[in-house]
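Researcher: Next entry in the queue.
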Amino acid sequence: MPRAVREQQMMDAAVQTFGQRGYRAASMDEIAELAGVSKPLVYLYLNSKDELFTACIRREARALLAAVQGAVEPGLPADRQLWEGLRAFFTHTAQNPDGWAVLYRQARTHGEPFATEVNVMREEIVAFVTGLIGAAAREAHHDPALPDRDVAGLAQALVGAAESLAGWANETPGVSAREAAATLMNFSWAGLENLMHGRPWQVPSP
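Model: Structure for this entry, 206 residues:
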């Protein structure tokens, strides 16, 4: 069997094991057995449990980012771009629950260097969403009233909400990716659209 195919099998087994058992509880014996290989072969290809976990984080992060970016067509109206991005995000996390568990739960709770790997992916998604919101503001009016700092903050809030909602959707029977995307779209777009058109909520005086 080609090395690349064998590594893919081991990575698939590792993501499943880490996602379902957790990083601490997962063992290289379990991963090797699930992949149908010997434990020494896992170590030969992937060196250590830490390096294997890091490789899993990077692979799942690349796949999620590619799914979101690939779903958004630049020529679509701003609301459709956001909708397609959200739908792709929730579809991917629903179809890859173990990979999402590795990114959202396991990597973040076991310190460095794993948390940094996830943060790199998250910042790329935030930057992508920041671009979408900025483009929507420019579409609404040629001289957007939204400062860069506000756009960045909105992107952080939207990504954080998507992450939390994906965790809830994956644990709640009967919640489809489309339903989760529509929930966040309904929650976010009304406010975003008002901001785009210069109708922000007025902060009360102290």
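Model: The chain has a mean pLDDT of 88.
Researcher: Noted, moving on.
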